[in-house]
Write a structure and sequence with these properties.
It is a single chain. This protein has about 180 residues and is of the alpha+beta class. It folds into 2 domains: about 30 residues; about 150 residues, OB fold (Dihydrolipoamide Acetyltransferase, E2P) (Beta Barrel). The chain has 4 helices and 10 strands; from the N terminus they run H-E-E-E-E-E-H-E-E-E-E-E-H-H. Strands 8-1-2-10-9 form a 5-stranded mixed β-sheet. The longest helix is centred in the first third of the chain and has 30 residues. It is globular. The N and C termini lie far apart (about 55 Å).
Length: about 180
Amino acid sequence: MGGEAELQVEVDALRARLTALEARLHKSHKHGRPPGAEVEVLFVSVGALHAAFELEAVCEVVPAAELAPLPEAPSWVLGTLNLRGATLPVVDIASRLGSQAPGLGLSDIIVIVSTEHGTAGVVVSEVGAIKSVRLDQRAAFLETPHASYVVGTFSHDGQARLLLGVPELLRHSELALIIGQEQGA
């Protein structure tokens, strides 16, 4: 019986690895961004993390504003923003990535992004330039099954940066429901 249990554990581990590999394969096909590809990005900082969002996902950038509370939302969903009559959930990226407690400061910026479920806001500490960058050829070796939101890497001004996939960053069952509910309201 002990041998069967060990085999089952190994089979489960292999299934988990297969699922992770299939997700990576799906991600690379979905993005269609092979290493070395040119991508238009918006530079952002999230605390000490220097990153970028693909420009095609960015709708606009707005200053921090008062948010309405959203009961029973995950802690990293700060609330909702009324943007010209549209109600959008706002996500604290630093909190989502686990690097700080959730919160919105006066100096923070909200980047309005488009997802497959609708529109949402993401809080960043700084927004930089819009530029075309070439994804790192070595990005294929960057395996991040634990962080599927990292869709590429590149170097800018001698500093390594991560290309964060907005759909992957906001992919969460609770958030998808919130975005869908707010867009339909």
